[in-house]
Every structure is written in C-alpha cells, then in structure tokens.
Amino acid sequence: KSSVFVPSTPIPGMKPGTSGLRKKTKQWMSKNYLSNFIQSLLDTANKSSPPHEILVAGDGRYYNTLAIQEIIKLCVGNKIPHILIPRTGIMSTPAVSSLIRSLPNCCGGIVLTASHNPGGIEEDFGIKYNEGRGQPADESFTDEVYERTKVIQGFWREEGEDIDLNAEAGTKTVLGSTTVTIIDPFETYISTLRTSFDFPLLSSFISDPRVSILFDGMHGAGGPFASKILGDILGVEGLMRCESKEDFGGIHPDPNLSYASDLVERMGLLPDGTANPDFTSEFTLGAANDGDGDRNMICGKGIFVTPSDSLAIIADRCECIPQFKGGLKGVARSMPSSGAVDVVAERKGVECFVTPTGWKFFGNLMDSKEAFGKKSYSPFLCGEESFGTGSDHIREKDGLWAVLSWISILADANKGNEEGSLVQVKDIVEEHWKKYGRHFYCRYDYEGCDSGAADTLMDGLRELVGGGGKAAADVGGGGEIVFESVEEFEYTDPVDGSFSGKQGMVLNFKMKSTGDKARAVFRLSGTGSSGATVRLYLEQYDGKNFQGSAPEKLKLLGEEAIRISKLQELTGREQPTVIT
Ligand code: VG1
Ligand code: CO
Q1: Which of 160, 166, 403 lies closest to 288, judged by CA?
Q2: ipTM of the complex
Q3: In this predicted model, what pLDDT tens digit does every residue of 66-78 receive, in sequence order?
Q4: Which ligand is nearest to the CA of 333?
Q5: Is 334 a catalytic residue?
Q6: What whole-number distance in Å separates Cα of residue 387 and Cα of residue 347?
Q7: pTM of the entire predicted model
Q8: Coiled coil: which residue ranges (predicted)?
Q9: φ/ψ (deg, to 5) at 463
Q10: How many Å apart are CA 256 and CA 107, to the nearest integer?
C-alpha cells in the first residue's frame, strides 16, 4: 500500500458560506465530492504552514463515521504526520475549538457538521475548518479553498484499514507515515469550562430543592457533553434528547421558538415566546443546544430570553462569572443582533464592536493582542441574534458556556436567599429592561425562496441607499412608523484591515410619537444547502413600555419592511417559514 494520486475533475459550487460548506448528504456522498473538497482544504492549509497535526471530528450526523474514515485515508495520502480523532468521532464545535487551542502543534480541525441544519441521508451534511487558534477559517482561507476546488486535478489517497472509533483514548494506529490517535473528546473542554466558572458554586445552587433545570440536547453533539457536565458533574436532572442521533431524531436541530417547541411548551411559553396563562412551568431555567452544540436558547419560567437580551444581561452581570472577575474589556455583536448589548457596554465604558454575521469575525478581536500585537480586549464577550453566545475562553460560540453563564447569574441573584422564593429569570430580565429599556426583537425567515427573486429584492433595497428612492418608499407608509433611510452594512476589520462588503441592508425607522428608533435588516442566509433563505430582522427600542409580545409589537414594522422591499411580490411568500 502506498499513497496514490487519484485523478479527478473540478466540481462546481463548492463555495463555503457563513460557516463552512453545506450540501445535501447525497451530494457529499457522490463520486469524488468529499475528496475534492478535502484535498483543496489540505492544500490551502499546507500553504500557510505544512499541517503537522490535524483534528478530525463531527457532530454525529449521518455520514459522520464514513466521512471520518475517508478523510483519514486522504490525510495519510497527503502524508500528514499526526491525526487526532475523538472517541466515537463526535465532538461539539466548542469542544473542538478548545482542544485545538490546547495543542501546540495542531494546525487545525476539520469539523463535519451542518450545525443547525437537519441531518440524514435526505438532509444536510457539511464541513468547516478551524485554524490553529481554534477560530473558524477566515474569508481569505475559504476563498482560497474555493479557488482550488475550481482547478483541482486529483487527490492523494492511501488505502488502509478503517480505524476503530470506539477504541480507548490513547490508542494509536500507524498508517503509512501517519499516526492516528484516538483521544478523549471531553477532557480539555471540561477543564476550560472549569477555569471559566465556579463549578462548586453552580452544583450547590443546582442542588437547592427550589431549583430545577431542563436541558434539551436536540440529539446533537452537545448532548453527550451536557450529560457529562450538566448531569454527572453538576447534578442537573432534567436532561432531554441528550443521546446524539444520526438524524437528530428527525427534528430540525435549531434551538428556537419554532424548532424547540417541546421545551418552549414545558417552560410555560406560547409559540410567540410569551407566557402561557394556563400553565405554570416547574422549571427555573430551560435551555437547548443545536446540532453541533454551539448555539443556545435560554428560557425561564414563563419567559423567553432573546439571544440579544441574553448577551446584554450576561454583559451587565458578568462579574459574577470568575472568567470576568478582572472586569470586562470588550464586547461585540453581529450587525443584525439588537443593540441591547451596546447600551450596557456604553454604561460600563467598555468598547463595543459591530461585526458581520458569522463567528469568524470575532476571532481577530479576541486575538488582537496575542496574534497582532495590538490592544487586548480580553476578557471579551460576544454574540449573535441567531442563538450564538460566547467569549474568548475559546474561538467559537458555545452553547453550554451560555447555559453555565445563566446558572451563574441565577446563583448570584439568589445569593443569601436561602428560604424565600427564588429570584427568577423573569425578574432578572425585567430588571434589565427597567434599567436599560427594551429592544423588542424578532426575526422572520423565508426559507427555500427562488435565488433570483432574493437577489432582486436585495438589489432593489440597494437602489434606495442614499435617499434616491426614499420618496417612492414613503408612499403608503407614514402613520406611527416613519421610514428614514437605507444603508448597506460593510466591515473593515479593525485588527487586520480586511474588508467585507455586502453584509446586509439596513432600513432605519423612527417612531412618530416617542422618537424611539426602529430598524429592519435584510440578509440572505449563507448556511443553506439549496435555494435562498431571506432573513428579515426587526428591532424596535422602547424606553418605557416593556410588556408584551415582541412579534406583536413588531408586526407593523414588519409590514412596512415587507412593503418597502416588495418581498411579497418578489418571492410570492405571504408568511415567513419561521418567526423567532
Ligand atoms: C446563520 C446565522 C449566523 C451564524 C451561522 C452559523 O448564518 O445567521 O448568525 O453564525 O448561521 O451558525 P446565515 O448566513 O444562515 O444567516 V451554526 O450554529 O449553523 O454554525
Ligand atoms: Co451550530
């Protein structure tokens, strides 16, 4: 057996999106598809520094095991000295990031996941690459991979025995000039979380008989990690759907009001996120993770915490988390996320960045000092409206980290409260709104739209920039919501100067009676595997009235945005697929 060069020809459409390349599983399984992409990826990684050690892990979805076995053969063919595989082949994305960071010789990780997209032979599979600091590959890297997929002539491969993915951690197999080592998926990540949080404090709070926590793993990669950390170590009893499954039990593993409906119901909530007047939940905290364990949804008894509010509240109270004892130095949010965290940062005198969608933009800010010799923003907090929250303990969003942050906040709010009734999530959120005002927020997703129609919609909005089309857009509007302007969001990375254009169209509004600002943002999703998903993000600040349902409050704004963008005429959609 030896390494052979297998001739192949370029396959179109291998352009990674917001977070890796996502396609239908069957496409990945078609001839040379996986091999072409992996060879292009290894060639790109090889350019910066020849890969010495690579981690290969996935979220456990259908094709995970087969793909790992094939990628090993390709890595052996490419004479990569060392490959690390977690036992079972399954690791959450945050655990991957933390492990890469802990290994001095590891150049990166190939992560087999389509994250929150459904899994199975008829559904989605995907591949992401995380670089040596544990961060998602940046645009220059993924652009380079794409360029190579367009000219590839073949790939290196070496036939060999399959690796036993259930072997004990530490088991080594030598294949050609490569050593494959099975490693423990949990160890490093658990010790990272132990340095971020006060585990003894958390477990003593959890053991309080008044406290009860419900966690939904959505049958994703976060499940086994939650069982170990929340269950075995911290004593949480309410664990649901924590065994990972190849098809996520047939569900859409995206923790939001629509797709985590069981949890939402058990938390005493209606599908629009408001309290169910006929049902009081027994749970203090409810949380869910997505397919690869990097997203989180947070609910309390009868209250849903929007991800943007969750970030703002964690920022406001972060000093109760050991990681932030020294004081918060920087925060960031993706542009479509609400401005709730901006207000907290301003009051705390902490620098606040607004970045394009996707976690890769946070990494440079976190590493500004170490990797770029600039000012340090550590400890750093960041998040996205798409149920992503995290910090610089790793370089990915982290579903479990967010849950532990909320348990820390609850424990702190109940310090010294041994007998009375518990301070609940609802109390914490309402107190926050009282202090800072409320950023009402929700998102409409229109999935599976025609790509041409979606592009026309965005182009139409682009024409309104600069006020040229303002008069036209105003016709039929008026009333309480006054349309002000349209702008296109672009970003120049303050650390390395790289530029990202076309990051979303922002429509600015003002409320006539109060002068409060409102905003509607349009973006096309970069994580789908077919067609186009139009996302419409709605946000309205209210400094006085905090009560009520966000979708209800934002209905008028939504109608205005839909009218101005001509969404209905262009896409033929009467209703969004998902409101969250
Ligand atoms: C979506 C979210 C974005 C998130 C990305 C990856 O991207 O909007 O905030 O970073 O998914 O999340 P898009 O381009 O579809 O809007 V994950 O958990 O799927 O890796
Ligand atoms: Co994810």
Answers
A1: 403
A2: 0.98
A3: 999 999 999 999 9
A4: 1
A5: no
A6: 24
A7: 0.95
A8: none
A9: -70, -20
A10: 34
